[in-house]
What does this fold into?
Amino acid sequence: MRFVLAIVAFVVAAVMIAVGIAQRTVFAPPSQVAVSATVKGDPRYIVIDGAVLNAHPGQQTLAISGSTSKTQVVAYGRTADVKAWLGDQTYSRLTYDTADDVLKATTVKPSDSESDGGDGDSTSTPAPTASTPATTDPSTTAPPNPDAAGPNPTGSDLWLEEFDGDDAKLTRMNVPDSVSVIVASDGTKPAPNQIRLVWPLDTSTPWSAPLIIGGLGLLLVGLGLYLWGLYTLRKSRGPRRKGGPKMPKLPKAPKYKPSKAVEATPKGRRSSRRAMVAVPVLIGALALTGCTSDLLGQPKESAAAATPIATDLPKAKDVMPPAVTVPQLERIMKRVSAVASSADAKADATLAATRLAGPALELRQANYIIRSRKADEPALPTINSGPLEITLPQATDTWPRVVTTVLESTDKGQAPTALALVQETPRDNYTVQYAVSLEPDVKVPGLAPASIGASVVPPDSKLLKMAPEDVAAAYGDVLLNGDASKYASMFEAKGDTLRPAVGAEYKAKTKANLSATASLAYTNEVPKDRTIAMATNDSGAIVWTNLNEFETTKVVEAGAEITLTAGGAAEALLGANASKTGIQITYGYQLAFFVPPAGSDQKIMLLGFAQGLIGAKEVQ
It folds into this structure.
């Protein structure tokens, strides 16, 4: 019998090991699924929709080839953003045919993009700056020229991730359905037209290892049975001692036949012992019967039935996405910092204008002029690339787009820098409109997380303690009149380091030291359409605004002359050191405020500022 069991064990073990090995070799599933296509027509742009990228689960691997240009780029962004960037450009869109398991290319023209929706479903948001593109009449707009050079997608701030050059030939990504990939060269030459997509497949064989290990174990069992059988067989064939004379058989005792009285139910100690044995058997049977429902996975009648949780969460399509992600903004800030640092080193206003605009650019342009005429004039504080302490993007899918961030200073003696960046159109990069140093003891109000973003508050909003467009003029009145200003009580004086530096007391002292042959007057104005307001969690707003202050000195006595400080910044900017009529010096103030909601007891608080000389001219 042992040999039979050993043979059965050997056969079953062989089968188990063979099946386990076959699962990893002969019957092993493919490690990946791949589709490829060659796009005809030499398109400049190829778009792969997120639905195509997610046709199979797992990380997507994209390989491109066939480009005649050394410049090639693979980038991905939100599908609506990719379509908005393409705008009036014709492109090829790849779709996935699940029936035939192939990629198909379709040519999309600008008119098709508009009819498909493009970004036309977007909800408009208030324009934060004056440079908002004006709407044009489609009937008067010239049709796009298909032979004209298209835009270059390389370096666009719109992309969530970008791969250039050799890195673009083979890229791995894991993007959702709402993200699309754009493949291009430089906008003038055809894009790489050979596209190959690869998805990994689950090649795990969970039963392979147990089968092989179990087969080896059963093989050892069979071997043990075989050896045991051999040992028993050899032992049974050994020499035997011859027996002596047989012993006489003992007489058989008569069989006892119980009477009917004995067959009756036993009583006494023996009967109680049998009853005690039956009791646990009965209890065990009942216990097993009670556990049957649990073993089968059926809920007990006493368990409460689960009830679905009703939620009122908005649908994904109704939620505006943040303008940028944190990694995207980190990449943008590296580009901005590199350009600003290079422009500062070269005093190149043209280069600075590619990444700065509005009041931030005006201050640097004036500084470049002064430094070109005054060798010892220091440069403005650098715009570093981070780390990012705060990221507050606008939640929107339209343009212009606003992003607010606070950068940790790399210099221990320098305060953190707060920036307000604006992207005017899909093809424009973000430009720094405001760059201010935060006040020493400032407390930034609660802001929405970067993954959600915040809304832009209209400049004339009545839901705040003061409309954002009125904050700069009111604060300018406080700088001119001090506590006598009707707005003084609305602004927090504690922690405001700008007011004592250039406020009413400073201006009074400056006038007192002026010669009797001249007059000095201070005025200010608020440039139009430069106010940006971002909502906070407490229904307040972070308000970025610009104020220009004019210091006008005029001659009041014939023959007198106004002389500027020798070697000063005003003299360098004016290009002269004296005037017989008058001189007007302009100072630019970049201001960041926290404006509480209407009805709040809080005061408007200055969060940070940047100020400097931006103009000087002779007046009559």
About this structure: Confidence is low (pLDDT under 50) at residues 114-144, 261-266, 268-315. The two ends are 125 Å apart (CA to CA). The longest helix spans residues 208-236.
